[in-house]
Amino acid sequence: SNEWDQTILSKVSENYLPKSSEPLMAGQGGVKLWKFKAEKAGTVELVFTYSRPWESFQPAKTVRLTIVVDDPARMVALGSTRIVSQTAALESQLTIPVIRGMENSAAQKELNQAVQAEVLEFYESVNAQAAEDAKDAAQYEAEYGRSFLPYQAYASFTPGVVSDDIISYYLDCYKYLGGAHGMTVRSSHSIDPVSGRELGLKDFFVAGYDYVAAINEEIAGQIKADTETYYFDTTAEEAKIAADAVNFYATAQGLVFYYQQYELAPYAAGILEYTIPFELLEEGLKR
Length: 287
Description:
Elements: E1 9-18, E2 30-38, E3 42-50, E4 61-69, E5 77-86, E6 90-100, H1 105-134, H2 137-144, E7 151-162, E8 167-176, E9 183-192, E10 197-198, H3 211-225, H4 235-238, E11 248-250, E12 254-259, E13 272-277
Parallel strand pairs: 6-7
Antiparallel strand pairs: 1-2, 3-4, 4-5, 5-6, 7-8, 8-9, 9-10, 11-12, 12-13
């Protein structure tokens, strides 16, 4: 591992656990465990490499973890954990959101575990595909006359709003599996930090308010006014949201609705967004 500021994060122990209870043998598999202790607020990066210590070759695998230690006096915050990995088959960089400061620590843990599982599931699917395709690298090189290019898996998030009343952010997962270009899939989460409950679209509005009609009218108007984007013929219908729509996140200015690549327009248009200002929804807003 690398050198880091141990006044922020100190190493408590480092142990190797063999997979077998039999006496240790050369080449035997096992797991190495590190235990750290947070000492004060700050950020450090830990670098772990998988290699033979007596060889000077490039490590078979490198993982970088960014550890953020928060000041306990802070209120609700949205930090991150960063995992960087490089193999012959896959280049990956995963930045995973981590909620901190909620009074309901059990709910906070559950929320963090859920989004981590979401990102790691994405990574594992790309990694499995990369490992499988890399097996045929020699045949690929002979057939196409060029070396196999490592696949890519990137995950990143962008906060919309973070406060003691609401946490809202979107998560982009990008994968490249060869070909002309990669693909990004967006998901989002809006959370009540007090209860720890994930908020649905209806939770932003008072009962009886027709928010679906108000939002759809504004989105349709913004699409009509957009003369620079080439939209599909089906865009008008595809852009309409339902009462239980999940393709949104909140900002300080309003609710932002997004559409995946190819959903409303060609790939070059990217992920399209339409912001619905809170002023337009003021009569029905609950939060």
